[in-house]
Amino acid sequence: MVLRHCWSGDGEGFLARIFWDSNLFIYFFEGHPVFGPQVRHLRQRMVHRGDRLYTSTLSVGEILVKPVAVGRSDLAERYLTFFRRPGINVLPFDFKAATFYGRIRQDKAVRAPDAIQLACAAAADIDLFITNDARLSDSVVPGINFITSLERASV
Question: 57-69 and 22-30 helices cross at what angle (nearest 10)?
Answer without folding.
Answer: 40
